[in-house]
Amino acid sequence: MQEKILEMLKQEKENGYVSGQELCERLGVSRTAVWKVIRQLKEAGYVIDSVPNRGYRLCESPDVLSHAEVAALLRTSWLGQKLYCLEETDSTNIQAKRLAEEGAPEGTLVIADMQSAGKGSRGRCWESPKGTGIFMSAVFRPKLLPVKASMITLVAAYSIASELRKTYGLDVKIKWPNDIVLNRKKIVGILTEMSSEMDFIHYIVTGIGINVNMEKFPEELADKATSLYMESGTRFQRAKLAASFLNRMEKDYEQFAAQGSLAFLKDAYNEMLINRGETVRILQYQGEWCGIARGINENGELLVEKPDGTIREVFSGEVSVRGLYSYV
Predict the structure, then answer these.
(1) Residue 313 and residue 302 in contact, taking contact as beta carbons nearer than 8 Å
(2) Strand order across the 287-296 sheet
(3) Both ends of the chain: CA-CA distance in Å?
(4) What is the pLDDT of residues 100-147, one digit of tens each?
(5) Is the separation of the CB atoms in 281 and 180 below 8 Å?
(6) DSSP 5
């Protein structure tokens, strides 16, 4: 009931008050029950104005990643509808994989205020301090061949970057295949892990780490990482951000799953690709080589022009991409 009342208050935030009688009738509960929930919300940090004969009005929400806050902002049909909000965990990817193994449905989402062992790409640790970022992992069960699984990383990057540009006016770029950067520093990292057989996907877990309100980073990360707050000077409501990304990603994922390719987003993705037209270093287990990034194809592979003019398709699972002299 707390989530439903909070959702109703948020919907009316711009228009005015919601009467106690309306809350009672729509939820089928007593005025006392409504009053108790309002009191709980106030204790949790919500600023709610109560006026006799007018009702309740939500004035301000705390920056929390609670179940009630996130659920009230979601407009999805299935992504995040099975929701686990944790104050602290080792890794949201670890928890999401555990739930997937236990049969959790597609769209199950784990979101945490803090991670003690956040997972980055290639076994690196993801810095996850309390109360500053968004750390979440979603379970997907697409009816696609395993070879297409890595494309979900690109879908997630495209969805988040598009939302940051459209809704928040931030000039973010995508660093293929799993990072989003702002002013050439990382603000988002994406890690996709899979359980599959030769021709069947059991599940995919996509973990997303977003640097939101961090004020600084350890010295070893300061030249590579930044946050939305550090770049814009604005503090963001993390639940609102997370919900806006999920609302967008559900639509993009559905289109990808139906088509089995990235043809629908390829051109827009390439417009946001930070290294497009620039020389990049391709780091592989066998060694490294350089070429000019020309964009992605509909399979999510990076097209790199070699010095002899030939185009090589680079699969995201086999490489790391860097600029000639730096991270980007």
Answers:
(1) yes
(2) 311-314, 302-305, 287-296, 279-284, 320-323
(3) 47
(4) 999 999 999 999 999 887 766 555 666 677 899 999 999 999 999 999
(5) no
(6) H
